[in-house]
């Protein structure tokens, strides 16, 4: 794992949260994106080398909707950048970690992603992110 790619924060109202984080971070949201397969709308902020991803559910079956219902708004996951997501997934499985998806899937911000079950990581949902390279 190379670095923390971003911190994901679950919110109820994306527009309201964007306004709050624009004031807090003293910067504008640089990108919004809908990830239909995950039933979420996202908004991204960059401050220095760090990124924040705000996530709002678009349907009740969304993992974000279930998270907010159970735990309320707040930090949802920490994402790590990796060079080879398939190799990293194999390494983690070989070390006994449970992955929430068997193959990487398309996520927001031009990334292939995979999640590690929080029961293996002291209650923290971990996301692996690999930049999609277009040829």
TrEMBL record:
Keywords in alphabetical order, please. Isomerase, Metal-binding
Q: Which Pfam families match?
A: Glyoxalase_4
Where the record annotates domain VOC, the positions are 3-131
InterPro entries this protein is in? Glyas_Bleomycin-R_OHBP_Dase, MeMalonyl-CoA_epimerase, MMCE/EMCE_epimerase, VOC_core
Q: Which GO terms describe its molecular function?
A: methylmalonyl-CoA epimerase activity
Q: What are the EC numbers?
A: 5.1.99.1
Describe the family membership recorded for this protein in Swiss-Prot or TrEMBL: Belongs to the methylmalonyl-CoA epimerase family.
Q: Which PANTHER family match?
A: METHYLMALONYL-COA EPIMERASE (PTHR43048), METHYLMALONYL-COA EPIMERASE, MITOCHONDRIAL (PTHR43048:SF3)
Report what the protein is called: Methylmalonyl-CoA epimerase
UniProt organism field: Pedobacter punctiformis
Q: What is the lineage of its organism?
A: Bacteria, Pseudomonadati, Bacteroidota, Sphingobacteriia, Sphingobacteriales
From the UniProt record, report the name of the gene that encodes this protein. mce
């Amino acid at each position: 794992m190379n670095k923390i790619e971003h911190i994901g924060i679950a919110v109820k109202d994306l527009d309201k949260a964007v306004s709050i984080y624009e004031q807090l971070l003293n910067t504008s949201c640089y990108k919004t994106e809908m990830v239909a397969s995950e039933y979420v709308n996202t908004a991204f902020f960059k401050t220095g080398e760090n990124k924040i991803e705000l996530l709002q559910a678009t349907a009740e079956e969304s993992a974000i909707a279930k998270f907010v219902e159970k735990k309320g708004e707040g930090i949802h996951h920490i994402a790590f950048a990796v060079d080879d997501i398939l190799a990293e997934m194999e390494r983690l499985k070989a070390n006994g970690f449970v992955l929430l998806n068997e193959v990487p899937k398309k996520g927001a911000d031009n990334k292939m992603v995979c999640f590690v079950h929080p029961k293996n990581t002291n209650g923290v949902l971990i996301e692996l992110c690999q930049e999609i390279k277009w040829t």
